[in-house]
Write a structure and sequence with these properties.
Shape: globular
Strand content: 25-35%
Radius of gyration: 22 Å
Strand order of the largest sheet: 8-9-7-6-10-11-15-14
Order of helices and strands: HEEEEHEEEEEHEEEEEEE
Number of strands: 16
Structural class: alpha+beta
Mean pLDDT: 87
Helix content: 10-25%
Number of helices: 3
Length: 269
């Protein structure tokens, strides 16, 4: 009986120690993920502070400085500056490493008078996005965040004008800065689709629903495959059970449609 009682006591002690060790592992405050980005011959390493409980899919936003959970939202902080080269880096502090003359395919390209600046952007979006009956209109300005921390904008130029003229100022990677210097994408971010794949996750809109590239299951997506909000519901590599998601397409409205599919979160700077 003495041996039995001793064994029981040791077993209980082992279980207690094991549970305490498990609990300690579960309460790690945060991790810091290094990200190395190569642009031409330039290589830079950035770090992203990842808070406790952040789902893996958001860790793909390599351009964030910080990602953490706040209540039912995921908070993503970025500097809003592209990690790829651009003609809009001319005259900036990053010119020596990131300036590149336009070498795209648009024969009508003309550089606009703005240059790229850095911003402190904070995106707060729902982690469990839900359809919103009101489908509020997407605003001018940031409508979401891409993997490299650059903002998505909707399908309109200033004063809700069509992009017909403004599109000729988009650089070889599909973006440009506005008057205050905030670089953004209205159309396919071709640097990301070249690096990650045409069918890859590219980011999230403010309503929390993901944005994917122009290819799905080997097929190039067109507007006829999508609803008026510019998305549909199906399985994706990141969401094997299926989720509503947006697609970038080659035609207007490019990224988002007549409104957000879900209830939009916020972006501040």
């Amino acid at each position: 009986m003495k041996h039995t009682r001793l064994f029981t006591t040791l077993s209980g002690l082992t279980l207690t120690v094991g549970l305490l060790a498990f609990a300690a592992c579960q309460t790690t405050d945060s991790t810091v993920l290094p990200t190395t980005t190569t642009t031409g011959t330039t290589s830079t390493t950035a770090t992203t502070s990842i808070g406790t409980g952040v789902p893996d899919v958001y860790k793909k936003i390599y351009g964030a400085t910080e990602i953490y959970v706040e209540g039912t939202n995921i908070v993503i902080k970025t500097k809003g500056r592209p990690d790829h080269k651009s003609p809009y880096y001319k005259g900036t502090q990053w010119e020596s490493s990131l300036y590149e003359v336009y070498n795209g395919t648009n024969a009508k390209f003309g550089v606009n008078p703005n240059t790229i600046s850095e911003f402190s952007l904070t995106f707060k979006i729902p982690m469990s996005p839900q359809v919103d009956a009101s489908h509020s209109a997407t605003p001018l300005g940031s409508t979401g965040v891409s993997l490299n921390g650059v903002a998505f904008f909707n399908q309109y130029a200033a004063m809700n004008s069509p992009l017909t003229i403004e599109i000729n100022g988009f650089d070889q990677y599909g973006g440009h800065p506005q008057q205050q210097g905030q670089y953004h994408y209205h159309v396919e971010p071709t640097y990301l689709t070249a690096q990650k794949g045409k069918d890859a996750l590219l980011g999230f809109l403010l309503d929390g629903f993901p944005v994917y590239g122009p290819i799905e299951s080997g097929k190039t997506i067109t507007n006829t495959d999508l609803d008026k909000y510019h998305g549909h519901t199906s399985k994706t590599a990141d969401y094997p059970n299926g989720i509503y998601h947006y697609h970038v397409t080659a035609e207007d409205p490019y990224i988002s449609g007549s409104g957000f599919y879900g209830k939009a979160g916020t972006v501040t700077q």
